[in-house]
Amino acid sequence: MKAIENLDRFQYRGNGAFQAWLFRIAINTVNAHFRQRDMLSIDDVPEIESRHPQPDDVLIQKERFLQLHHLVHTLSPRRQEIITLRFFGGLRNQEIAAILHLDERTVASHLVRGLNDLQARYTEATPHER
Fold this sequence. Notes:
- The protein is an all-alpha fold.
- The protein has one domain: Arc Repressor Mutant, subunit A.
- It is 65% helix and 0% strand.
- It is built from 6 helices and no strands.
- The longest helix is centred in the C-terminal third of the chain and has 22 residues, at 104-125.
- It is globular, with a radius of gyration of 17 Å.
- The N and C termini lie far apart (46 Å).
- The mean pLDDT is 82.
């Protein structure tokens, strides 16, 4: 609805411009949604699909998902965006660069550093599981 309501604001700037504009609206909408909902509850986490998961395993996976969700939100806003688009949006670095109006190398750098930060923070938070 937001895209349709703001269609008169779209400015064509070449191939991929509409897609980038549409993704920007989607990103802003998702970010606004998560800003309004600071905390997820265990019930908000999607069900873990498996043929025969044990109840304990499902709970552990959900807890890890919540922990990862929290850790992603400790990153800078730019790295949060890039990691979200890459791993939850399934976009390639080139597509992310076009959407965020960044150089592809900048996206790659943020992605690598963000993942390194997440790994370090996860390791700090769960030292007994190494």
